Amino acid sequence: MIDLVVRSRRTVTPEGERAAAVAVQGEKITALYDYAAPLDAAEDIDLRDLALLPGLVDTHVHVNEPGRTHWEGFDSATRAAAAGGVTTILDMPLNSLPPTVNVEAFEAKLRAAAGQCHVDVGFWGGAVPGNVKDLAPLRERGVYGFKCFMSPSGVDEFPPLGLAELRLAMEEIAGFGGVMVVHAEDPALLGEPGGPAYREFLESRPGASERSAVAQVVRLARETGARAHILHVSSADCLDVLEAAQAEGLAVTAETCPHYLTLAAEQVPEGETAYKCCPPIRSESNRDLLWDGLARGVLSCVVSDHSPSTAELKVPDFAAAWGGIASLQLGLPAIWTEASKRGYGLRDVVRWMSSNPASMAEISGKGGIKAGNDADLVAFDPVAGNLVDASLLHHKNPVTPYHGRVLRGAVLTTWLRGRPVDGAPHGRFLLGEQ
C-alpha cells in the first residue's frame, strides 16, 4: 500500500504542468501516475484544479539566531517559510552572534536551531578577513558555500573582503570545489545618504556600484577557477557583464529577489523604511529589464533575502534605518502576482524559486516533483486573492513593504518529506559534502 497519493490536474513537474497523481512512500516521491489512476493508498488527496508545486528552495534567508533572535529565530522563520510554500532554506552566516565564520560558531548555530525547524535547513559559512584557514573545515562540517561582502555589511562583526582577500578566499574555495556567494557592491562607488529621503538613499547606491563589483568577481572567477554566485542583483546594469561571463563558460550565476521584481522606486512612500534594502529597489524601467534577464536565464534564481529586524530599527529615515526586507512568507504570491501579469506560468516560477536554487547550491533531493526526490509538496490556489496583513504573518516582527497589498495566490497545504507541516517541527538539518 502507498502511504500517500496527492492528485492534481495542475501538477508542476520538471517536464511541465500536467494532470498527475504523485505517489509518496515514507519521505520520498516514488512515482507519478495518470491523474485518475486507481491506487491503493493509506491517504489519497485530490486537489482537483488546485496546483501542486514542489516545495520552494530559498537559499537566501537571514534567521539571526543565536544572538539577534528578537529580530528573527528558527521557529518563527521556518513557520513563515512553510506558510509560504518554502520547504528548504539556507541560512546566511551574518546577523547571528557569533557569525558563522568558523566551526565553533557553526556548532553554536546548530545547537540554537535544534528542535525548532519546521522546514529543512542548510547553512552558508562566512568569508571574512583572516578566516581563509577556516573555510575548508566549515565545508567539511557541512556548509553549502561561503558568503562575503565587498562593501560594509551593516554589522561590525562581519567585515567585507578587499579584492586581495577575496582572491585568497576564492583560490582556497576553488581548491575544494566550493562556491562563493557575493554581496557585490563596489565601496568606491557608494556614497553617503545625505538625508532621510528615499531618493537620496537610492542615489547613494548607484547601479554602477553593482556593475563594477560584479565585473571584479567575474575577473576573479576567471583567474582562480572558483564558482561564484552573485546575490540579490537589483540593477540591470549588471546583466551584460553576467551574460558575457556565462557565454564565456565561467561558473558565474546570479539571483534576484521578489522585491526587485515586484516593487519600484516610484512607489516607495517617503518615510516607509520597510522598503529599505541594500542594494536598493530601483526604477520601474529597471524592473522590466530584470524580468527580461530572468526570462533569458542570465538571472537564474529568485530568493527572498529575508533580512528582518525589529520595528524600532526601521526608523522613518532612509539614512538611519536598518536595511533589509522581510518577505519569506510572501515570495511565492508576490512573484506569481507579477509573473502571471507578464505571461509567465507556474512552471517558470517553480524553475526560478525551486529547481534552480536547489541546483545552484547543490542541494540533493530537492527542487522538483520527480521520483526519488523528497516529498516536499505545496497545494497552491493560483487565483485566490491574498490581502497582506503584516500582523498575521509568522515573521517575528510585523514589518513588510507588502502590508496592505492584494497578492494573487494562496498556499493551502505544505508537505515536508511526505508529512504536512502542522505546527510540530520536523525539519532537519541539511549538511553539504562532508
UniProtKB/TrEMBL annotation:
What's in the keyword line of the UniProt record?
Hydrolase, Metal-binding, Zinc
Cofactor(s) it depends on: Zn(2+)
- Keyword Hydrolase, does the record have it? yes
Q: What is its EC number?
A: 3.5.2.5
Note whether Ligase occurs among the keywords: no
Molecular function GO labels: allantoinase activity
Q: In which pathway does it act?
A: Nitrogen metabolism; (S)-allantoin degradation; allantoate from (S)-allantoin: step 1/1
Q: Which residues form the Amidohydrolase-related domain?
A: 52-420
- Assigned protein family: Belongs to the metallo-dependent hydrolases superfamily. Allantoinase family.
Q: Quote the subunit structure annotation.
A: Homotetramer.
Q: Which PANTHER family match?
A: ALLANTOINASE
Q: This chain belongs to which protein, by name?
A: allantoinase
Q: Which gene encodes it?
A: allB
